[in-house]
Amino acid sequence: MKTLTAKEEEIMHHYWAYGDMQIRELQSHYEDPKPHVNTLSTLVKILEDKGFLSHRALSARCFQYFATISRDEYSGGSLANVVNKFFGRSYLNAVSALVKDEKISIDELKELIREVEEG
């Protein structure tokens, strides 16, 4: 899965939260100072090229954009990229690093194992 810049990810969070939108509607979800419509249009086009958004024509020059990848699909792909890049494609190494760095306690890890075993 392709990665997103911080600005691209911010736009995707708006589409995941609010659903299908035109560029002006997207702009309305930003606080002042709002990004310029042309800036948003450029970023939305990049997101289309990367396969994260698509559009439907409402009229000859009016488009509504929508997410083609869910937040869960993106977060799962992002996790896989981190594991592949930094932990030698080993989820065990990733979890081990979390335990060693005390980001997850042994008790939390045992609870996770119980939850997985229970299905």
Low-confidence stretches: none
Q: Could you report the average pLDDT, rounded to the nearest whole number?
A: 92
Number of strands: 2
Helix share bin = 55-70%
Task: Summarize the entry for a quick read.
By secondary structure, the protein is mostly helical. The protein contains six helices and two strands; from the N terminus they run αααββααα.
Which terms would index this structure?
mainly alpha, 119 residues, elongated, 61% helix, 2 strands
Would you give an account of this structure?
- It is a single chain.
- This protein is mainly alpha-helical and 119 residues long.
- 61% of the residues lie in helices and 11% in strands.
- The protein is built from six helices and two strands.
- The chain is elongated and about 55 Å long.
- The model has no long low-confidence stretch (mean pLDDT 92).
